[in-house]
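Hi everyone,

Forwarding the result from last night's run.
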Amino acid sequence: MVSEESPLLAPTGHELIADRFTPHKKRWIMYLVSFAGILPMFVQATFVPSIPQIAKDLHSTYAAVSLSISLSILATAVGSLVWAAYSSFYGRRSMYLWGMPFLCAGSCGVAMSTSLRSLLFWRFVQTFGCSGGLPLGAGVIGDIYKLEERGTAIGVFFGATLFGLAVSPFIGGSAAQYWSWRNLQYSIGLWGLIGMLLIYFSFPETSRPGALGIDKLTRRRWIHITWINPLSSLWLLRSPNLFAGMLAQALVLISDYVLLVPMAYTIGARYGITNEAIIGACFLPNGLGNFTGAPISGCLSDIVVRRWREKRKGLWFPEDRLRMTWIGGLIMVPLSVGASGLIMTYVGGPIGLSLNLLCLFLNGVGVDFVFSPIASYNVDVMDSRSAELTAASAAVRSIIISIATALIIPSIERIGVAWTNIIAAILALIGQGIIFLTIRYGDRMRASVDVGFTTREND
């Protein structure tokens, strides 16, 4: 039981368990989970530039095909909860192997779709199958890395997965312009098949020995199927500090969507860009910022944890990891999104375009300076259920972002780009304020609702 007076201490037991894998083996595991983690980003982001061509091929409208985006967000939320919940019973490896066939079948189904109805169905199957990439990856990192190494590992993982977000719009736009959106979907299915084979032949189970639900059964059948409520993971967010971290991530991440979702209607229209491949290339600076910021922020958060732990002579307060977020949440994110709106409104020509691309890069870096430390914090405080917490946070965050995304275009049409971006900047500042409160009162927040936090005693 966590009390208000007892800090969460260093989990020495886990350090011995983490040494099960050699550094070389850990790097290979990181490569595999990053390979799987790229897929959800890639599946989502490559689809958007292809929407006009898909609408034309299916004799539908842009708005109708765009429904698949909302549907895929729902599938991602549902799928991440399912895969994370069952990974605590059957293991991480099993969930990767169960999810990949859904991705492969869904990708082929999307490629062969001849109607809007079949497209929506197979898009749901496709995104459901690959949605476990992020929560399972976070869980694996919690399994194999020590406390002082997790920030860097999470940063590298998010950096690698967000690389998919960096290149996906360009690839999707180029495929729509010069190749075929159907062939692109077949390629994603092939990617999923290769990933499944790599995991089957070279990925070990990383969960702690004896910790899985199936290991605790005294009697079990050859094929043992157990019902696990995937929504139970959401109950973890009743903890004030975990809910605060999720909400802060959502409020900061909204700035990303404000800049990226209306790209064709903002940067494209303002600077006369109509080529889909070039519009897709405009996403690259933001993705490059994500790719750069994630490992740097993760490494810095590890340094902060070590320094504050030394100051307290070995005592560990998990909220120390959040102290690095101010660089992104207080400075880089609000300034980049606010400046982009003003530049787009008042600065035209190549100079305006260049400054906007710089803002996109800084926003990508800034978002990761908030996102990665909070993700590492979640793994720190909920070590054994980190995959479930990551999935629960992603699910609720997706709902918040989907609502915000639906309001972006109407807001731009009603009050303009500048004011819409300024509102996003204010939301980011509110998110950072929530983080400051969590740092200040984190011990009381944890003590108020104990959801099984990681301590020396229960690790």
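Confidence is low (pLDDT under 50) at residues 1-6.

Cheers,
N.
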